[in-house]
Amino acid sequence: MPIVDDQSRKDADIERGRRRLSRGADIGEIPPVVEPARRESCRLDLERFLTTYFPFSTGLSPFSDDHRRVIKRIQDCIIGGGRFTNAVYRGFAKSTISENALLWAILYGHRRFGGIFAAESDLAAKAINSIRTELSDNDLLFDDFPEVCHPVRALEGKAQRCNSQTYRGERTHIGWRKDTLVMPAIAGSPSSGSVIMSRGLTGSILGLRWKTPDGRQLRPDFVIVDDPQTRESARSPVQCQYRLEILTKSVMKLAGHTRSMACVVNATVISTGDMVDQLLDAGRYPAWQGERIPMVRKFADRNDDLWMDKYRDLRCTFAKDVPGDQKRAHAAANDFYLANRDAMDAGCEVSWASCFDPDSEHSAIQHAYNALIDDGADVFASEFQQQPLADEAASLGVTGEDVRSRVIEIPRWVVPRGCDTLTAFVDVQEKLLYWAVVAWGNQLRGHLVAYGAYPEQGRAYYTLRDSKKTLVSAAGGASLEAAIHAGLDAVMAMLLNREFGRENDEAVLRVGQLFVDANWAQTQGVVRDFARRSAWGPRVLPTHGRFVGASGQAISDKPPDRGERIGANWRTSTIQKQRHVLYDTNAWKTFVAGRCKLPAGDPQAFTIHSGQHEMLAEHLAAEAPIRVESKMRTVDEWRAIPGRDNHWWDCLVGAAVAASFTGISAVGAEPPKAPPRKVISSEEMAARRAALLDKMGR
What confidence tens digit (pLDDT) does each residue in 203-212 have? Predict the structure, then answer.
């Protein structure tokens, strides 16, 4: 009996297993290409590919000239490389074009590793699922790209068959994951072994690569970024900058050093200064080419009278509590449009003639005006025109650019020359204590010396909502009240015991007055008790900011009681022997915002210590004023912008009130003049006394 060594036995077992596997999972012969000429005609023509192979999506309606320019840019990027941004309106079919263009790049072998990035991972997963559906169910693709679609259909939607699938006895190495598609390895196929991956832009993308069966490393060489921002992130300067850095520093470097990355961003501008708006700025990003494509290139000649007057009245005049009355109003507006269509269409130029709902509208012009009327000018300007309207209210408030222009070359914790008073403010929140120290000079010239949060988060950017280290965790799981008390004690010790050096002299300063926010009902007792028993005495006072509108009674209107003080839109009061300060938040926010908007060289301009302050900029730009007039006065009423933290803005305003409290005065923050006292003569006083006695019956 011959002796068989162990290795020969193992090899024989492997070979038998491979044969059994191939017999059970082999996909059989791949069908021939049905129309080779059709396939070849699209090889270098992306637009033809989109209209030929996708009759129910990108081939459903004729493309506009704007579509053709966008598609040509994508084609040029795939074949020749480059960086392109297409800012297009909602309903432009940009996501479908992106997905199908990525398929074109892979199927023809123009690119080996394509990525699709979206604002969030679930949106990216939807994109790759759409591509998966086309490969498995699109009969036209199956006819002309059988080397890809036949192995895909052989899976029958079961990803677990990937590892065992073979063709002519060799594994296809097909991949069919949630976020990754690997094209089957078929000899002679231009897409053999190519990869498509999807990712959320803020997810894990570093080191993205794929190893082929022959040991080669594939890196992404083409990516499509489809709607990379959310509405929340578009409103946040810090998040916009964060996403831009991911795109420019991470995504664009995925190809490595031996090949440049080709990238197309297809998106919609949401807000002024958002990620896409900045990417279109040639001054900031000169390497990127791009275009803003509006829905309406020119409004109708009869915009004012026919569209925005008569048509609008017909469409919007209906009883909101009567079912079906809105439908009646829309039908009346439709009838008016059909009766006056030539006059109403005259002069109007729209991007895409096929962009309308044929069941309820008659043209793309009507569709555009319906969107303008129903959604309003603000929404239409951003979502449809790619040119958000300037927010007049926000421009009156502090902007991110205002903050960036305030920064001077003085280190943190150092007081600039000309400032000799330090005040501080602590904003009490459930999870964190936000604090700021401000130096003040003549006429309330202010400089932000330092700011932060307790407990420290150890991150460059965070929000109150996503803070990991909280007051309760820092206090070892104590009750909220005890945790706030412990946090206040730690912040006071850090700020009130500290000696601050001044720029270019030997002066040593300390915080003279620190205010603590006591507005939150759950913490009022804690803050008052802390201040009452504070080791720092009257240097610590609780405060209550009051919203005083145009029709409200000003804080200074009521005469002071015994022992109270009245200052510039603030007054002291006492509750249970605990003194506190009330102040008008609207008046003081307007004053501080004005100082933040003075030219940088103005002697009264507010300044900020050196460093990066993007998160601070977000806080200071988190509110915007609305100018309200009443019979009594005109007031800028400040409103929070949804989705933003404003806590350092509150700190800055509170520190300014504290400076006024210590005796610093300034134009624009003067204490209200006391009403003139009426002098009464002795004769009039005697007459009043006699009248009073007579009334009492004496």
Answer: 878 768 888 8
